[in-house]
Write a structure and sequence with these properties.
The protein is α/β, with parallel strands linked by helices. It contains six helices and six strands.
């Protein structure tokens, strides 16, 4: 079976929606998703970087992220034909391990625990495909990278791009 490695944040889990809600609720930020086009929060509201980072490094921040539309159904379909690995760069926020694991078990319980990879550098992943919202992970990855559209990468070019989970299904299952 061919292998598909799938990133978690901004591919399976909607990190941006939680950040926007946090900034608007806690800091009266009045942030919209459109402001993220081509940018990250650190560029949009740099004066909030330290405060928001404190929330993100909390051990439970990643536990209740919204699930990306159609991801559960499509990943379950793909798992019948491909070996699926969830590859999250959890070392960026080491306290996130338990929350991310629990989130995966709750929303993607049909996947095997042994196929959850918590790492830093994704070039160590031996897979045929990597679906990720950060093209930096494709640089040393040996397989085919697929850039999952997220507001921060909207202007990136030079990658095979999938805009949503239905496009992922079409790419792999045609």
């Amino acid at each position: 079976m061919k292998r598909i490695a799938i990133d978690m944040d901004e591919v399976m889990a909607d990190f941006n929606l939680k950040i926007i809600d946090l900034v608007n609720r806690e800091y009266q930020g009045n942030v919209t998703l459109d402001e993220f086009n081509g940018k990250k929060l650190t560029q949009i509201r740099p004066h909030l970087n330290d405060q928001v980072r404190e929330h993100i490094i909390a051990s439970n921040f990643f536990r209740d992220l919204p699930v990306m539309k159609d991801s559960q159904q499509v990943i379950e379909e793909l798992s019948r034909t491909y070996e699926i690995f969830i590859t999250t760069a959890a070392m960026e926020f080491p306290s996130s391990f338990t929350a991310k694991y629990e989130w995966l078990k709750e929303h993607f319980g049909f996947l095997k625990d042994m196929n959850f990879v918590f790492c830093g550098d994704k070039s160590i992943i031996h897979a045929d495909y990597l679906i990720d919202d950060n093209s930096r992970h494709f640089t040393r990855f040996q397989g085919q990278g697929l850039l999952f559209t997220s507001p921060h990468n909207i202007y990136e070019t030079g990658c095979v791009r999938v805009n949503n989970w239905l496009e992922v299904r079409d790419y792999f299952l045609g």
